[in-house]
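Protocol step 4 of 5: obtain the predicted structure for the target chain.
Materials: sequence only (see below). No template structures provided, no constraints applied. The aim of this step is simply to have a reference model before the mutagenesis design in step 5. Sequence pasted as it appears in the construct record:
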Amino acid sequence: MRHGVKKIKLGSDKDHTKSIIRNIAMALIIHEKVKTTETRARAVMPFVERLINIAKTKDKLNAIRRIEQLLQHKNASKKIFEVLAERYKDRKSGYVRKTFLKYRKGDNAHLVLIELI
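Step 4 output (structure tokens):
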């Protein structure tokens, strides 16, 4: 048992949380920056870093299959291999930056800008 390990819960259930993370990650990969809430950004950043690390491995066939399974978006997975893996080939980690913006007017949620470095 792993006591005291908390998981970020975004939706009402596990599938909704996974869907939110996947959709924000696809938008971040395609547009290279996304404005979202701080909690969602904290959940998405390690997911995107893991995807880029998978793309940088030597076994390309399994990496392609794994990323397409996780993302389910052809253009995003293609961009990871052709653009992002080449851009970050000398970098070990830290591909995503989080910049604090302001508070949203309607519900006072803390907004951040996450972008690929």
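Step 4 remarks: The two ends are 37 Å apart (CA to CA). The chain has a mean pLDDT of 91.
Proceed to step 5.
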